[in-house]
Amino acid sequence: MAYRLLVRRVWTLSAKDIRCLPASTATTASSSFSTSLQSATTRVSFLSPSRTLPRSLPHTSRREVSFNVQDHEDFTERVINSQLPVLIDFHAQWCGPCKILGPRLEKAVAKQKGRVAMAKVDIDDHTDLAIEYGVSAVPTVIAMRGGDVIDHFVGIKDDDELDSFVSKIIGQ
Question: What is the pTM for the complete model shown?
Answer without folding.
Answer: 0.64
